[in-house]
């Protein structure tokens, strides 16, 4: 193998590793956002269920 080919291979591998790390971090951040949204959804659902105890809907 020539030195230029070895260098190109190392740069390619480094780029792939950096890309995987970036994607893993992005997935982690998105998962945190999803967890926050789910938690807020549960709170809102509980609040709506509590409100439904006091509100009568026609035909409900």
Strand-helix topology:
Elements (H helix, E strand, L loop, with lengths): L2 H50 L8
Helix content: over 70%
Can you write the helix and strand succession as a string?
H
Report low-confidence residues grouped into runs of 5 or more: none
Give me the Rg, rounded.
26 Å
Q: Would you kindly provide a written description of the structure presented here, covering whatever features stand out?
A:
The relative contact order is 0.06. The model has no long low-confidence stretch (mean pLDDT 92). This protein has a domain at 18-49. The protein is rod-shaped and about 80 Å long. The chain starts with a helix and ends in an 8-residue tail after the last helix. It has one helix and no strands. It has 60 residues and is mainly alpha-helical.
